[in-house]
Amino acid sequence: MGHLKIATFNINGIHARLPSLLAWLEREQPDVACLQELKAVDESFPVAELHAAGYGAVWQGQKSWNGVAILAKGSDPVEVRRGLPGDAADTQSRYIEAAVAGVLVACLYLPNGNPQPGPKFEYKLAWFERLIRHASTLYASGHPVVLAGDFNVVPTDDDIYNPRSWLKDALLQPASRECYRQLLEQGWTDALRTRYPDTRIYTFWDYFRQHWQKDSGLRIDHLLLSRSLAQHMRDAGVDKWVRGEPHASDHAPAWVEIEMGAEAEARTKTTPAARARRRASGA
């Protein structure tokens, strides 16, 4: 099927930003789009408008806050899981999984955690620990998986314009960064950082102190690839222009492009690990 472009976009209110969302989908044509912060109940999700734009969707809304969705161009995502396992009492709409084009797509909106210390930061870390446990099972499955979303963590000081004024923020705390490091240690590939190892690249610019105009940004929206997907990553980037549009979200969409189909599959089968698996299975 050629290339699969998977994007993540914290929309910061799908009703307020629907024109912006539709303009981005039309211009950039992602095959899969993970959305966070819908700030809308399930019944008001703009499914008709998205269908008219050529996208099917699964979503989990919530009144006033949170909310996540997965869009697929020309097809309906097949929902696999709604909600992050590990805490039956957690009612916040922050996680949804769906199968699209042979890839398991996990869309997540990790808690912000401010103010810290306090119960909101404790909830953030507990949610992160649940994500680490669940992600471990996804990675171990061997399936092509992408974890995409607003992780609300700045992984290193290279992912922020200047850490000094953010030192007390939950996004930069050592415990938050340690959780992200533990996640990567499972084997996930951070698509943006892999594509731009030495470049400051941001996905979020808050509305204050002219941070957008000064390019004072943070990288908190991430696309983490399982091994089989990382092998076929062609490109990754940020659609920065979206942040400069009128009435924009404070995030810009981040994306990764994966080579899919017979050509990529043929290359995978020639790796030593693949040959060993075929021998073990008698193929």
TrEMBL record:
Active site (UniProt): 109, 150, 251
Classification via CDD domains: ExoIII-like_AP-endo
GO molecular function, one term: double-stranded DNA 3'-5' DNA exonuclease activity
Top-rank EC class of the record's enzyme: hydrolase
Keyword match Metal-binding: yes
Site (described: Transition state stabilizer): 152
Site feature Interaction with DNA substrate, where: 251
Annotated Gene3D superfamilies: Endonuclease/exonuclease/phosphatase
Biological process annotations from GO: DNA repair
Sites marked Important for catalytic activity: 221
Cofactor note: Probably binds two magnesium or manganese ions per subunit.
Enzyme Commission no: 3.1.11.2
SUPFAM superfamilies reported for this sequence: DNase I-like
Protein's UniProt keywords contain Hydrolase: yes
Alphabetized InterPro entries for the sequence: AP_endonuc_1, Endo/exonu/phosph_ase_sf, Endo/exonuclease/phosphatase, ExoIII-like
Region (Disordered): 263-283
Cofactor: Mg(2+); Mn(2+)
Binding positions (Mg(2+)): 10, 37, 150, 152, 250-251
Pfam families listed in its UniProt record: Exo_endo_phos
The family this protein is said to belong to: Belongs to the DNA repair enzymes AP/ExoA family.
Entries under NCBIfam families matching the protein: exoDNase_III, xth
Protein name in the entry: Exodeoxyribonuclease III
